[in-house]
């Protein structure tokens, strides 16, 4: 990093002597020196406003008595008390951990398995890849109704298998308070695992063949090669997959709205849907803001260490 | 790319393993295709057929009437002219949104890696956190901001919102991609006296095509499928097609025409589906080239 | 840099173009009536306004039983680009009025003598601090029981008039192999059941105390325990796939004879008549058990947002006046399945159930038993309504929860909603 910096400094300086220093070229020099910072400046300013500014605004609102529209009569942390005493928020919090854990786990496992299988020089690879990847192209606004039908025991899979003669088949998670959350996992994994597959496939194809060949000469079988040599090298990809999936899990909203609308019996609320309902359906803008702040703090607690490690590693590499 | 498949080695178990792999892959493919199949099948049935059949039963009689209705007749509020005009809105929205956010991401990524300065990593971290913001949070303050600059309730306002919230993603892609490029390229250009944008234009852009593909596909998908920004920051005749779709398929106290709903759904999804079908392989190449990695 | 200044330039352009668009009398109407019968009803209004020289810009926002529209509306108000008018339930009128964003319609109301022609129970809810701030389009009734006549005849049962009878009839239907009650397990549908049970078991005074005033004693009372006990009993009268079902699919069950009855507002008629079911022949409508002589109402109103643009104000006044037009009230409400918000409209063209509703409302107005619906935002504000919806839905779908636990949650929730 330090090296790049000095290079950037030295050139415009050298030019300065040749040019002579009129005010105009001083400006040009300055622009040349700071081209990189200047190029970034608009994005940084905008992001500071629309992300951090709005986050602070949300934090301020969470300390007020805002109901329908923002108002600025402050009530301290009362809204946080109300938030945590709300049973539905408690459900939403425990749901996001169940959902997040299973969603990230299954998407990663299935994505990796598909990538390994598809990497075996099979026929129709292009077709299969597209099939696994296409769910990512669709939003749940589009596929929500179809999923609702498939998961509904009276219309979908259960009825279908009954019609086909498998009378004892049961698949009624969607209408079961305890299991409905898992239907969200199914639909979520369906949407994301193809993308995870693509990430792993790309990484698998970047692995040094010689290592694999050497292991094979040593008599290692396929399982051993994957366990000992290939998967350990996928570390950075696992990190990326984790961050991307976590970002999706936290934002999961369309999924819930399309499949369960939070039901049955409020059992499938997630923090994002809770926040939306409180803010726009219940006229509790401040409680909604308080829940938003809780979400952001949780995300920050996970993401900031990741960013720190990621950036430090990249710095070491250079 | 490895010369031999790793699991499929020659030997007695070769055939068994091969069959096993194909069975797995095909089973998964069937499961993945099911929702799409349900949607497409339903869109060519008439309503009686839907009530009497199961979700995967073949239509008694294939009809394209629902498609015609969805395209040019379905009612969206009081306007019964189908989805067709709203497609144009979405196209008008998507071209500048994707172009500007991708270009912005490329410049940012380039500045953060190839012309690194003290604090660049911190700035990257600041930008990246934007990826994690749930969009429901920012609706009201964003509406205020757009109102203050006079862009509320216009297509331009919506495009700005998409650009702004797309930039953290595109910056991430390009930053990671450029990180994998050798830094000698830019250093050499600088020694020759090339400036910031000159180097970007002449040296970096020509080798960044894979990353552009990833960024464009990603942004296209997200922006085309967006509902919450579209519904909040535009209204009436200006809304993108997903918002119109939502108005078609949702009803509070009315009667549902599932076949027309499903035809609308397929229509709305066609552009993004087409992108994945036709450009999917370039997407993978872009990923391999390092646009998304740790 | 160049692109950025281009963007700014184009913002300026588009901003000025939207402003010039505002010329002429125009109303931008935001609503969530996006489909079939409801949109058809609104179209009558649009045409009436166009005859009066006011153009209509349509801003439909569907979804989330109106929640999406509320969200968009707030964003529009925050950005200072509020629409001319928006659809709102009775208590939402009060909430918006409290924010000070609704146009004062008092002069028009005086001129057209609204106090005389609008159903008296609606008047307080369209008034705020002595000013008239909204205009009601329709009145729906939520305490209706719809039943399939053939199914009832076959099982040899009559429409139940008390909740005890309801349980007996349901047992007989169960024995006959029919799902007694068609229900969709969405919070608002479960809350609809709840408010009907509250009224049926407790009577009008208890309903007022418990749901409108949220009186602690009433909520903690023995009667409320019985209400939840009755809901628990009803668990076994619904089929096992009810969670998440849309109300119209529940109505389909009654139409097909898979289910015997449904408790639902009168919009169910739209679905019934679409299936060529004749009132009083194929299906019957009677008041929900124990609520004969009572009328639980909900209304859709239009509120108008304050603006400095004279032309827009004119458009708003035209629209407000047109909504109370007798012919419009008749045409709209026939299409929508509701009854007029006016009390002096001819009911000749309405169907059997519509006429019955109109007569029952007149009766209930006399005995002071015309009551605002809790579920549909007529009885109390969104926060407290939300508490009821949460608790009732959780109770109904959690078999292990006791009635006392539900009441405790109600008390705690309502306290924190203060």
Task: Describe the structure concisely for a colleague.
The complex is a heterotrimer of chains A (318), B (294) and C (418). By secondary structure, chain A is mainly alpha-helical.
Please, could you describe this protein's structure?
The complex is a heterotrimer of chains A (318), B (294) and C (418). Chain A is mainly alpha-helical and 318 residues long. Chain A has a single domain (79-317), classed as MetI-like fold (Orthogonal Bundle). In chain A, 75% of the residues lie in helices and 0% in strands. In chain A, helix 5 packs parallel to helix 9 (180-204) and helix 5 runs antiparallel to helix 12 (235-251). Mean pLDDT of chain A is 85; it is low at 1-21. Chain B has helices at 14-43, 47-52, 65-72, 84-113, 120-128, 139-148, 155-179, 184-191, 196-204, 209-225, 228-233, 241-249, 258-288. Chain B is mostly helical. Chain B has 2 domains: 14-63, no CATH class; 84-288, MetI-like (MetI-like fold). Chain C has 418 residues and is α/β, with parallel strands linked by helices. Chain C folds into 2 domains: 25-141 and 297-357, D-Maltodextrin-Binding Protein, domain 2 (3-Layer(aba) Sandwich), CATH 3.40.190; 144-296 and 370-416, Periplasmic binding protein-like II (D-Maltodextrin-Binding Protein, domain 2, 3-Layer(aba) Sandwich). Chain C has helices spanning 2-21, 36-51, 67-78, 90-98, 106-111, 114-117, 149-155, 163-175, 187-212, 216-220, 222-234, 247-256, 268-274, 310-323, 326-336, 352-367, 382-397, 403-416; strands at 26-31, 55-60, 85-89, 127-128, 131-132, 134-141, 144-148, 179-181, 259-263, 283-287, 295-304, 339-340, 370-372. In chain C, the strands form 3 sheets. In chain C, strands 1, 2, 3, 6, 11, 12 and 13 form a 7-stranded mixed β-sheet that branches. In chain C, strand 1 (26-31), helix 2 (36-51) and strand 2 form a beta-alpha-beta unit. Chain C is globular and about 65 Å long. At the A-B interface, helix 1, helix 3, helix 5, helix 6 and helix 7 of A face helix 1, helix 4, helix 5, helix 6 and helix 7 of B.
């Amino acid at each position: 990093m330090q090296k790049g910096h000095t290079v950037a400094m030295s050139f415009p300086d050298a030019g300065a002597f040749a040019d002579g220093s009129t005010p105009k070229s001083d400006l040009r020099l300055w622009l040349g020196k700071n081209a990189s910072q200047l190029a970034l400046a608009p994005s940084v300013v905008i992001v500071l406003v629309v992300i951090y500014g709005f986050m602070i605004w949300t934090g301020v609102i969470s300390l007020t008595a805002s109901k329908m529209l923002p108002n600025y009569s402050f009530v301290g942390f009362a809204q946080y008390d109300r938030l945590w005493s709300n049973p539905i928020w408690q459900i939403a919090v425990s749901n996001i951990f169940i959902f997040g854990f299973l969603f990230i786990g299954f998407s990663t496992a299935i994505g990796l398995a598909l990538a390994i299988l598809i990497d075996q020089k099979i026929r129709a690879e292009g077709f299969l890849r597209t099939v696994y990847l296409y769910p990512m192209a669709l939003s749940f606004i589009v596929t929500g109704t179809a999923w609702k039908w498939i998961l509904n025991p009276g219309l979908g899979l259960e009825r279908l298998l009954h019609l086909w003669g498998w009378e004892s088949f049961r698949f009624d998670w969607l209408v079961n308070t305890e299991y409905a959350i898992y239907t969200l996992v199914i639909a979520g994994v369906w949407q994301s695992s193809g993308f995870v597959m693509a990430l792993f496939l790309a990484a698998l194809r970047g692995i040094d063949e010689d290592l694999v060949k050497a292991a094979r000469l040593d008599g290692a079988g396929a399982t051993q090669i994957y366990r000992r040599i290939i998967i350990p090298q996928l570390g950075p990809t696992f990190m990326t997959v984790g961050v991307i999936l976590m970002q999706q899990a936290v934002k999961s909203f369309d999924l819930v709205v399309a499949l369960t609308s939070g039901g049955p019996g409020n059992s499938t609320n997630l923090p994002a849907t809770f926040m939306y309902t409180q803010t726009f359906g219940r006229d509790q803008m401040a409680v909604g803001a308080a829940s938003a702040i809780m979400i952001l703090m949780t995300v920050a607690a996970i993401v900031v260490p990741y960013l720190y490690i990621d950036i430090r590693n990249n710095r070491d590499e250079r | 790319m490895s010369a031999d498949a790793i699991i499929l080695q020659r030997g007695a178990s070769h055939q068994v393993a091969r069959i096993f792999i194909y069975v797995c892959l095909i089973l998964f493919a069937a499961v993945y295709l099911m929702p799409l199949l349900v949607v497409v099948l339903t869109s060519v049935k008439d309503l009686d057929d839907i009530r009497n059949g199961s979700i995967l039963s073949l239509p008694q009689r294939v009809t394209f009437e629902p498609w015609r209705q969805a395209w040019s007749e379905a009612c969206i509020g009081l306007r019964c002219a189908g989805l067709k005009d709203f497609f144009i809105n979405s196209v008008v929205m998507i071209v500048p949104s994707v172009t500007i956010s991708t270009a912005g991401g490329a410049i940012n990524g380039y500045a953060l890696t190839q012309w690194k300065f003290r604090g660049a990593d911190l700035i990257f971290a600041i930008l990246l956190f934007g990826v994690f913001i749930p969009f429901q949070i920012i609706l009201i303050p964003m509406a205020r901001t757009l109102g203050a600059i006079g862009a509320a309730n216009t297509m331009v306002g919506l495009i700005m919102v998409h650009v702004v919230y797309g930039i953290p993603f595109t910056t991430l892609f390009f930053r990671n991609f450029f990180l994998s490029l050798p830094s000698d390229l830019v250093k050499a250009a600088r020694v020759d006296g090339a400036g910031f944008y000159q180097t970007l234009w002449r040296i970096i852009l020509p080798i960044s095509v894979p990353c552009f593909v990833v960024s464009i596909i990603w942004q296209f998908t997200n922006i085309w499928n967006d509902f919450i920004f579209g519904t909040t920051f535009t209204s009436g005749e200006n809304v993108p097609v997903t918002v119109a779709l939502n108005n078609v398929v949702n009803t509070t106290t009315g009667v549902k025409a599932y076949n027309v709903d499903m035809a609308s759904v397929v229509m709305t999804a066609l552009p993004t589906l087409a992108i994945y079908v036709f450009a999917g392989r370039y997407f993978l190449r872009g990923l391999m080239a390092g646009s998304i990695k740790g | 840099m160049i692109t950025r200044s281009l963007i700014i330039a184009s913002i300026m352009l588009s901003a000025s173009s939207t402003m010039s668009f505002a010329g002429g009398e125009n109303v931008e109407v935001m609503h969530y009536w996006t489909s079939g019968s409801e949109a058809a009803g609104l179209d009558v209004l649009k045409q009436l306004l166009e005859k009066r020289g006011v153009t209509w810009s349509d801003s439909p926002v569907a979804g989330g039983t109106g929640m999406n529209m509320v969200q968009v509306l707030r964003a529009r108000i925050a950005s200072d680009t509020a629409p001319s008018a928006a659809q709102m339930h009775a208590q939402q009128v009060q909430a918006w009025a409290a924010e000070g964003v609704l146009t004062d319609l008092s002069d028009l109301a005086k001129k057209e003598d609204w106090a005389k022609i609008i159903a008296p129970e609606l008047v307080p809810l369209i008034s705020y601090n002595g000013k008239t701030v909204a205009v009601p389009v329709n009145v729906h009734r939520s305490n209706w029981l719809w039943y399939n006549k053939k199914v009832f005849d076959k099982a040899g049962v009559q429409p139940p008039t008390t909740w005890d009878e309801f349980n007996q009839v349901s047992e007989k239907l169960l024995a006959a192999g029919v799902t007694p009650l068609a229900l969709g397990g969405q919070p608002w549908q479960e809350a609809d059941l709840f408010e009907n049970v509250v009224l049926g078991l407790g009577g009008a005074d208890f309903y007022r105390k418990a749901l409108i005033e949220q009186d602690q004693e009433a909520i903690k009372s023995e009667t409320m325990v019985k209400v939840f006990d009755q809901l628990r009993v009803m668990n076994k009268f619904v089929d096992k796939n009810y969670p998440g079902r849309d109300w119209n699919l529940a109505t389909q069950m009654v139409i097909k004879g898979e289910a015997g009855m449904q408790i639902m507002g009168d919009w169910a008629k739209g679905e019934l008549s679409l299936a060529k079911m004749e009132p009083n022949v194929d299906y019957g409508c009677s008041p929900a058990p124990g609520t004969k002589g009572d009328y639980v109402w909900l209304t859709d109103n239009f509120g108008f947002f304050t603006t400095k643009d004279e032309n827009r104000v004119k458009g708003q006044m035209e629209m407000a006046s047109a909504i109370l037009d007798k012919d419009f009230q008749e045409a709209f409400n026939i299409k929508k399945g509701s009854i007029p918000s006016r009390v002096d409209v001819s009911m000749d063209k309405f169907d059997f159930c519509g006429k019955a509703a109109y007569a029952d409302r007149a009766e209930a107005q006399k005995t002071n038993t015309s009551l605002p619906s809790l579920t549909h935002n007529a009885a109390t504000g969104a926060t407290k309504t939300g508490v009821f919806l949460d608790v009732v839905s959780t109770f109904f779908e959690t078999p292990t929860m006791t009635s006392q636990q539900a009441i405790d949650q109600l008390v705690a929730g309502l306290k924190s909603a203060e």
